[in-house]
Design goal:
The chain is α/β, with parallel strands linked by helices and 382 residues long. The protein has 15 helices and twelve strands. The chain has a seven-stranded mixed β-sheet with strand order 4-12-9-8-5-6-7, sandwiched between helices. Strand 10 (229-232) and strand 11 (237-240) form a beta hairpin.
Length: 382
């Protein structure tokens, strides 16, 4: 067996040992393959943020989206995800604990992770499409390995990621032992995160996708990363990323549309729940909706191309399935159980686990200090 020198993970001898792997670089990269959700980039109104801008804020994070980033990019030279000695994939755990604990300690950003529940029935076709894309990428990955084209192999491998039920349970176990809260959404995580933001329980929803604003999140933070990079598989290169803040009301006011009209615009472009109209992108869809106000008013030729179940798609965004039963409190840190899980069961190096434990101890110390300062401040005002 080989020990990965940066993550401390055991890697089977059949895998390649990436001696030049820079874990801080990998942990701060985001995956870009096909855009998931609706593509609104050409018309988006956003504000670039620094992590210092987010200091002291709380975020409801799309957990599945967050974990996929690490599954895609924390891989060995030939594109194989990192595994423990029993064959369990651990790339997502490495990314989850290293990045999250830094955001919590160094920037005092409170995180609550929201996991997807049962997807709406209308998402079935999109799920099939993604599965086909993964299968195609897997075949191309294997072909690249045969020719020892490792650059191409890696670029294909990042598009084969699949988040299994056992991997999600491992992530939940890790969060529980760290004391970081998480919420199980009844359906779409982005809808639940948007609901929590609307209720004022968190400052913003956080996801790489734009669906959060369709679900009504007052604020959406994209690219929650530290000195981030975005990997472009088709080009095999990375480009810098910075957190982006989208304020729903500012976006709607800028374009002179309502949220219902934004949803209609998205339906014309294409969402996770429907195919868009061929040849209509975000800019064209915006012009159409501003002119005709809603899908029902579209003229004959366009009306014939409208997705047949558009009303149901609209309803998914306007009235998504969410829950009000969640707990956002932190702690406690279960140090012994955490060490047993990460070291004994998932083969992480003790030194790496000690780093994570110390970060979380610092987090709880800072939280206690802030609470005491607030308490004494209240006494002073009496």
């Amino acid at each position: 067996m080989l020990v990965h020198y940066t993550t401390g993970l055991y890697i089977g001898y059949t895998l390649y040992h990436r001696k030049n792997l820079n874990i801080s670089f990998i942990l701060n990269m985001c995956r870009t393959g096909s855009i998931l959700g609706v593509n609104l980039t050409p018309i988006m109104v956003r504000k670039i943020q620094t992590l210092d801008d987010l200091r002291g804020k709380s975020l409801a994070v799309d957990a599945n989206n967050y974990l996929y980033q690490f599954l895609s990019l924390i891989r060995t030279r030939d594109g194989t995800p990192l595994k423990d000695s029993r064959g369990n994939i651990t790339s997502h755990l490495a990314g989850l604990m290293f990045r999250s604990t830094r955001l919590l300690r160094d920037f005092r950003i409170d995180l609550v992770f929201v996991f997807d529940g049962k997807p709406p029935t209308m998402k079935g076709e999109e799920i099939k499409k993604r599965r086909a894309q993964r299968e195609k990428a897997f075949r191309e990955w294997q072909e690249a390995l045969k020719t020892r084209d490792y650059a191409k192999a890696f670029s294909k491998a990042v598009m084969t990621s699949r988040l299994t039920r056992s991997m999600i349970e491992d992530a939940k176990t890790l969060l529980h032992l760290l004391g970081i809260p998480y919420v199980q959404a009844p359906s779409e995580a982005e809808a639940q995160a948007a609901y929590m933001a609307k209720q004022g329980d968190v400052w913003a929803a956080s996801s790489k996708d734009y669906d959060g604003i369709l679900f009504g999140a007052p604020k959406l933070l994209r690219f929650l990363t530290i000195q981030g990079k975005e990997y472009l598989p088709s080009k095999g290169v990375a480009r810098p990323l910075k957190p982006e803040l989208i304020i729903l009301q500012q976006f709607l006011s800028h374009h002179g549309i309502s949220r219902s009209q934004l949803i209609d615009l998205a339906i014309l472009v294409g969402t996770d729940f429907n195919e868009g109209i061929k040849g209509i992108g975000p800019k064209t869809a915006l012009k159409i909706i501003k002119k005709h106000r809603k899908i029902e008013n579209l003229p004959g030729e366009l009306a014939q191309k409208i997705p047949p179940k558009y009303a149901k798609v609209r309803e998914i965004y306007l009235n998504p399935e969410t829950t009000s039963e969640y707990n956002l409190l932190y702690g406690p840190l279960r140090e012994e159980e955490l060490s047993h899980f990460l070291i004994d069961q998932r083969d992480f190096a003790q030194k790496r686990v000690e780093t994570i434990v110390q970060r979380m101890k610092d987090v709880y110390r800072l939280k206690k200090q802030t609470k005491l300062e607030g308490w004494f401040g209240n006494l002073h005002n009496l």
